[in-house]
Amino acid sequence: MATQSQSQFYASLKKYYSFYTGGFVAFVIIVAILEQMGVPNKILGYIFLAATVALYAGIGIMSKTADVSEYYVAGRRVPALFNGMATGADWMSAASFIGMAGTLYLSGYDGLAFVLGWTGGYCLVALLLAPYLRKFGQFTIPDFLGARYGGNIPRSIGVFAAILCSFTYVIAQIYGVGLITSRFTGLEFSIGVFAGLAGILVCSFLGGMKAVTWTQVAQYIILIVAYMIPVVWLSVKHTNIPVPQVAYGYVLEKVTEREKVLNDASTPDGAREAEVRAIFKQRQEAAEGKLKALETGGAAYLAEEKTKLEKTVSNLKASSAPDTKAIEAAEKAVAGYPADEAAAKKAWTGAANAAKAKTAPIAAHAEPFAGKDEATRDNKRKNFLALVLCLMVGTAALPHILMRYYTTPSVKEARQSVFWSLFFIFLLYFTAPALAVLAKFDVYTLLVGSNFSELPSWVGAWATVDKTLMSITDINMDGIVQLAEITIGGDLIVLATPEIAGLPYVITGLVAAGGLAAALSTADGLLLTIANALSHDVYYKMIDPHAPTTRRLAISKGLLLVVAVLAAYVTSLKPGDILFLVGAAFSLAASAFFPALALGIFWKRANKFGAILGMTSGLGICMYYMYMTYPFFGVNAPLWWGMNPISAGIFGMPVGIIGVVVGSLLTAAPGKDIQDMVDHVRYPSLESDIDTRAS
Amino acid sequence: MQLTEKHKEYWQKNLRLTGILLAIWFVATFVIGWFARDLQSITILGFPFPFYMAAQGSLIIYVVIIWYYAHTMNKMDREYGVHEGDD
Fold first, then answer.
1. How far apart are CA A11 and CA A123, in angstroms?
2. Is B2 among the domain residues?
3. What is this model's ipTM?
4. Range of the structural domain that residue B73 is part of
5. Whole-Å CA distances, A282 to A66, A285, A352, A502
6. How far is CA A223 from the centre of its chain?
């Protein structure tokens, strides 16, 4: 391989991946034929998952390496285009693939904060970081902090922050892996987690960054194909145009009209909606009434109510012609009755909130920051923009993404590679809003107003699999579906699109494989980042700088295993909400890394003390705010300026920048060698240049 | 390491380009986002303008910004003689 020139290497890569794509299409066709021959869906699901995981493991085995540079940075010969695809897969996680369209379906314009934040951040990567980090040319992000600011303290803080945000993020990914494997194979969630993990490990364990890179390219191809097919199909179904991104403007207009009709009680459809909403209003009030009675009556009230229920059961049983159905229902009510005051409070508050959510009119999909008064709207706008900023800056600070730009052959290719990265990410991100609108159109026009006796088959299928994803009940008993009678979980949108579009099961399997590819590829990159920070930055750079290559790699691989098992264990405890975990990772990275990285390149005066102060204070404020305000931690302190905990970085970033500036100005300017190093990274090539590259 | 005037000019040009592109990035994201409710009445390709921008328009602007930066800088590297050797 070493004798092969870069252009030959590029040509053969193109050939390999063209064959691979062709092979993958052939594989999908074979599975489709199997389906027609009557192979059951569950077996098809197994075939898909097993074949793709085996494929990733295979690439891992083929990319086996014992070379340090190949293990850490794929030998620095990944062409811009392929690094772009790998970054795309590294970047797009389970949250992007499965969650994004659902979030957009549920929150309309306001959900676009994720679309904007997760793409616009690449402008910062391209303009402020990627080319300079590539010129610097070592292995990890703490490497840069260590060299630029000198000493082990900035490096150690970098290691801590890299592990903190990557670990938070990786938990969300492994959760996604568990969800998909358990849903499509029927395995238990925790077994699904470990099965998926095995696939991740074979790959990164043997070949490090090299294997991860080539697997990620393969994963990108699967995930983009899997995402596009159902959306294009749905677009043709509703608009006859196979380009959903163009066609859905017209569909959005129809959705908006439909929203108006459903919200207008003077139309027949609107009147039925209003009727259902009124029933929910009664339920909300009933639950609130019970809560109030509980507050005044306490345990006595609880016991009294229970006796009443038990009496109903005995009365029913005692009647001359016992109605078995009614008895069953009454017994169920007794069995499900809350055992103590705390449980009752929780259950009834939940019921009140669930009913309350259904009493509001339908929010317009395209309206930004909808709210009942100016203050609510302003607060929504503020949080929207803050979230966008945190996600963008976080993008430009997450070590597993920045690390990818160490792997290109040159500064020039690093710049081009950011372009390709965003281009490949853009393909999915500008499709997601189209999918959300197309799915909404389907639900609002075809499902709403149809008869309960003839529901589309996908509704029943998903409602039996998972009540949180799809539930539908005839609240007002009129036999016709109203929008307020449907509850849809966000993840349903992508998972059920093939069925909504009326495609065969093979496409559903393909979507599952795509979701798995998205989650696995991101988890791969993150686990590698954590293991490298520990083995390279802590062990090699700080503990034993003379360690031989074999020991360095052995330690890195050992740590990879430990970290992976630990992450899987934490995931199996199911901590918190995925979207919050992901958002938290971005806020943490934005606060800890971005100020020190960007100022380190653009401001020569920044020094060691400034970096230490900036990183610790930025990260500290961000963690403090999350701890104080995120309900999971149970403190629930008042919010600062109404900012949601997910955007904690909005406080961490400015504090971090001020910390770097003030800390640097208070102490002496960095020495000449550091200033020379800054010049070195600013120019792709200089005569009589110093060399910071890692051997 | 001594930088020549030409080197300094390269860096100044780079800073100016970076600044201009970041300004475009800022307007496409935050200015339009801030005024989203006020721009709601404008329609483009059937979409309300703010929705179109956040779902598609701004994304296209980001892609173009990055492409333009890579293209211009790679050309400028050659003009100023700071480009890397060819592989």
1. 29
2. no
3. 0.94
4. 17-79
5. 68, 5, 10, 38
6. 14
**For residues A122 and A455, is the Cβ–Cβ distance under 8 A?**
no
CA distance A458 to A498: 9
Give yes or no for a contact between A402 and A128, defined as CB atoms under 8 angstroms apart.
no
If DSSP codes are grouped into helix, strand and coil, which group holds residue A482? coil
Q: How many CB pairs under 8 A join A and B?
A: 146
Res B1 pLDDT > 70 = no
Percent of chain A with pLDDT over 90: 28
- pLDDT surpassing 90 at residue A116: yes
Q: What mean pLDDT comes out for the span A591-598?
A: 93
Count of domains forming chain B: 1
Interface of B with A in 15-74 (CB under 8 A): 15, 18, 21-22, 25, 28-30, 33-34, 36-37, 40, 45-48, 50-52, 54-56, 58-60, 62-63, 65-67, 69-70, 73-74
Structural domain contains residue B87: no
**Pair of tokens at residue A427:** 């393909």
Please state the three-class secondary structure of A609-668 as a single string.
HHHHHHHHHHHHHHHHHHHHHCHHHCCCCCCCCCCCHHHCHHHHHHHHHHHHHHHHHHCC
At A1, the pLDDT band (50, 70, 90 cuts) reads very low
Q: Is the confidence at residue A69, as pLDDT, over 90?
A: no
| 3-class secondary structure, A479 | coil
Give the long-range contacts of residues A474-480, CB within 8 A, separation 24 or more: A475/A276, A475/A279, A475/A280, A476/A272, A476/A275, A476/A276, A476/A279, A478/A272, A478/A275, A479/A451, A479/A452, A479/A453, A480/A272, A480/A449, A480/A450, A480/A451, A480/A452
